[in-house]
Amino acid sequence: MSTPGQSPLALAERVRAGDRSGVAQALNLVDDGRAARRAEALDLLDALEGEATGRRIGITGAPGAGKSTLLDALATRLCSLGRSVAILAIDPSSRKSGGALLGDRFRMGASARDSGVFFRSLAARDQLGGLSEVTGASLDVLAAAFDTVFVETVGVGQSEAGIVDLVETLVFVAQPAAGDLVQFMKAGILEWPDVFFVNKSDLSELAGRTASELRAGIELGRPDASGERPPVLCGSARDGIGIDALIEAIDGHHASLARSEAGPRRRAAGRLARIRTALAIRYGTRGLARLIAQASLERQVDAHPGRSVERIIDRLSARIEAGWAGTDAGAET
Amino acid sequence: MSTPGQSPLALAERVRAGDRSGVAQALNLVDDGRAARRAEALDLLDALEGEATGRRIGITGAPGAGKSTLLDALATRLCSLGRSVAILAIDPSSRKSGGALLGDRFRMGASARDSGVFFRSLAARDQLGGLSEVTGASLDVLAAAFDTVFVETVGVGQSEAGIVDLVETLVFVAQPAAGDLVQFMKAGILEWPDVFFVNKSDLSELAGRTASELRAGIELGRPDASGERPPVLCGSARDGIGIDALIEAIDGHHASLARSEAGPRRRAAGRLARIRTALAIRYGTRGLARLIAQASLERQVDAHPGRSVERIIDRLSARIEAGWAGTDAGAET
Question: Is there a single domain that holds both residue A241 and residue A281?
Answer without folding.
Answer: no
